[in-house]
Amino acid sequence: MIVGNVINSNRQIENTGSVGGVEILYDNTNQRVKGWIRNTDLSTLVLRDEHDLRRLEEEVLDAMALCSSSNGTRVTLRVLAENPGLIQNTGLSIEGIVPLTSGRYQGISIVYLGWNDESRLSRQEYFAEQQTALNRVTSLERRNSLREVPAGYSIEELVSPTPQDVSQVIDLMHEAYSRDGRLLMWYTPTHKAVRKVLNDSVCYIAREYSGKIVSMTAAERAENVMIGGKNVAVYEASDGATLREHRGKGLLQSCLARLLCDPRIQKADSIYAEARIAHTPILRAMHNAGFQNYGVIRNHCLIGGDRDLLEDQDIETLVIFALPRYEKCS
Ligand SMILES: CC(C)(COP(=O)(O)OP(=O)(O)OC[C@H]1O[C@@H](n2cnc3c(N)ncnc32)[C@H](O)[C@@H]1OP(=O)(O)O)[C@@H](O)C(=O)NCCC(=O)NCCS
Predict the structure, then answer these.
(1) Per residue in 53-65, pLDDT tens?
(2) Which of 1, 101, 125, 177 is least surrounded by CB atoms within 10 angstroms?
(3) Is 147-287+300-315 assigned to CATH 3.40.630.30?
(4) Ligand 1 binding pocket includes 249 (Cβ within 6 Å)
(5) 294 contacts 96 by C-beta, under 8 angstroms
């Protein structure tokens, strides 16, 4: 989930909505410490040997201490690794492993490490049901991801959004991410924050013929993830939303199909998404688009919206989806 990057002196993030840097910080909205593991010179660590593992352990200890001093309930860290098998007994679990797929960085993966306080976890029987439902969806035959655009709509890239576009996206967020009349989001969708997310992302939208934005998805590139001094192009597809009366027509999947054919995404080293496990439509849409399940991040962030599976927390569990390879677009 895309989360912001304004930092105060206590290593706390004020959520603005953009994906932010790699620094390990406390994210108050989501009650968690998050970041990427770095070397002492602040370059991104690529875990290859025992020496790298010592550095990882130092960073984990620092993150756990920050979590404790901030009264947080989760630590979520990412590390680039050639050898994830080295990671043992750090106090964090490996929650997912996403390979870099462009071929430029053969054998290197993004490893998700996590720890949750018990108080944060959903009821175990709900989680078990959610995993069963996920397996059911991902065992279905995929429907073609390069979808035809439903009649009555147009799909376009949102470039240089007008103030009206930003307002319509905010309305869309409010409808899609509310539950029982409460907006629950991993950041506060102010005009400024949403404009920043849109400007920093590769964003595709569906408009109905009146021009109104009714569906969207956006992919934002993670900043400052580097290997050998070069920026790695890691994108997170996020902010998937469709107004309720336009759902079930394939609009999100049409936006996703266009997004995945965008030249920046086609050239990316990795494109992943973190999708709500308790909301079957997003699981179906990701599966149809060719994404595969690389892990589960339990009770990861604050997120609302309809759910068709039982869940007792507003801080929900997400599925790590990533594209194992790119479909060529004509
Ligand atoms: C998730 C969301 C964006 C999907 O938008 P959409 O435009 O309706 O999606 P699409 O029509 O492209 O695809 C939805 C898929 O789920 C299926 N679906 C819809 N409702 C379903 C349900 N209750 N149970 C099972 N499948 C369902 C659809 O049939 C379709 O799959 P198919 O093409 O194999 O038939 C929309 O439901 C939404 O805004 N949800 C709230 C916000 C949210 O949770 N976003 C995701 C955050 S990770």
Answers:
(1) 999 999 999 999 9
(2) 125
(3) yes
(4) yes
(5) yes
